[in-house]
Amino acid sequence: MTIQPSDKPLLEWAGDSLAIGLFEDAVELTGELATLDQKFSGVLKELIAEEEFKGKANSTIFTRVNPGSPVRKLILVGLGKPDVLKLDTLRRAAAAVARVAKKQKSKILGFSFPLWNNDPAASAQAIAEGIELALYQDIRFKSEPEDKGSQIETVDLLGFGGQEAAITRANQIVSGVNLARQLVAAPANAVTPITLAETAQAIAKDHGLQVEILEKEDCEKLGMGAFLGVAQASELPPKFIHLTYKPEGTPKKKLAIIGKGVTFDSGGLNIKGAGSGIETMKIDMGGAAATLGAAKAIAQIKPDVEVHFISAVAENMISGRAMHPGDILTASNGKTIEVNNTDAEGRLTLADALVFADKLGLDAIVDLATLTGANVIALGEDIAGLYTPDDAVASQLEKAAQTSGEKIWRMPMEEKYFEGLKSGIADMKNTGPRPGGSITAALFLKQFVKETPWAHLDIAGPVWTDKENGYNGAGATGYGVRTLVNWVLGTGE
Ligand code: BES
Ligand code: MN
Ligand code: ZN
Fold first, then answer.
1. What is the pLDDT of residues 280-292, one digit of tens each?
2. DSSP letter string, 182-222
3. Under CATH, which number does the domain 2-158 receive?
4. N or C: where does the chain have the smaller number of CB atoms within 10 Å of the terminal CB?
5. pLDDT tens column, 390-424
6. How far does residue 313's CA lie from ligand 3's centre (Å)?
7. Does 171-489 carry CATH code 3.40.630.10?
8. Ligand 1 pocket: which residues have CB below 6 Å?
9. What are the structural domain ranges in the chain?
């Protein structure tokens, strides 16, 4: 499928399906649209009246046009009220159109959409992202796919002449999102610490990044006792991934992105019981997936920013070698941790990854993790929790998320709650009381960052969706990649 800008006048466009975006309560046809309606013998006006189309955001209707006309079908999509038009409204509307056009088996699709904020580049990028994200499908694990996929060959973005770069940018970003989706959706017998390290090496090779994989012995030498404690019960070796993108010339900023990479979370000896969702715990490397997806996108975009992509990857399993609840681990900064719950393993792996990144002399670190069920209870399935003591990094991430359409909400880092992590025998416990569980998790992570401005995103909710949601089909969302890319680009401006 090729998405291309076009300056062809609406009235001259020919193809299978023509999609028109209309604002709420402004569906009476004027100007070019009135002429278009006349050209098609009033079919547009009739459709709007018959279906009582009001232009509500994401509502779609369509109709067939007279046989023999240069356009076979018309698709109308609502954009909501014009004064509250968001960039993400265009992205979602484009996704809704793409799904209709796929069902219609369209090959040639045209878009007539308004601009957001008089910004043709941002608008074209969002529309292209919405189309591509919505048409993604994953048939890797089906012997015979029932869905044959979209037949769309070309998409013309009418009125967006000259916006080739914006569409290229969308392609680059979506390639990263789709990598993350594939990694999260693949089960734990397909994505393991070994294969995730191989994926990092493949990204490095394909896109010219530096890559270093620290093996268990290397991690031992660095004293990564917290990470290795989580890994020790598994038959599979842990892998510590460190990918680096370096721009040509002096970088404007140096950043790290860290992702939780637990390829399966059984809970360990505090095993996840019935109804705990243990069978979904392949998703527990969603942070690492977003990190690698962002690496793939950043490597193509090539901003003037140095970025380190890091993940301490392991399985949280049970065996005769498993951590006992109550074991004391020593992290690579020398801090001791009483593991009062082996199911709070993500923060243990992140602890050593944060210490590692903190020593790199960077301007900022962001970690992403499917860290706590408590974050899902607090914010629901769609919104990631943002935890940071640093207002500047918080507003950078909020801005990046605003542009990407990925929802984040800043949560308090209530220092008093650290009392819940006090241990009688070690420096801290890894698990606090149930109330405020996502906050104590963030306060635990904070103990492992001393030098660098840092933020943590708890993505346990949005990493996955059970049903179609905006431009995401049911399944892995690739959440985080688009916000991370925007964050990196924003810091280089
Ligand atoms: N991977 C889970 C968190 C999770 C829950 C991710 C639901 C996605 C969906 C994490 O390792 C975990 O088990 N957290 C525990 C922490 C508790 C033991 C303090 C939790 O949230 O119950
Ligand atoms: Mn766990
Ligand atoms: Zn986990």
1. 999 999 999 999 9
2. HHHHS-TTTS-HHHHHHHHHHHHHHHT-EEEEE-HHHHHHT
3. 3.40.220.10
4. C
5. 999 999 999 999 999 999 999 999 999 999 999 99
6. 12
7. yes
8. 265, 277, 284, 341, 343-346, 370-374, 376, 431, 437, 460
9. 2-158, 171-489
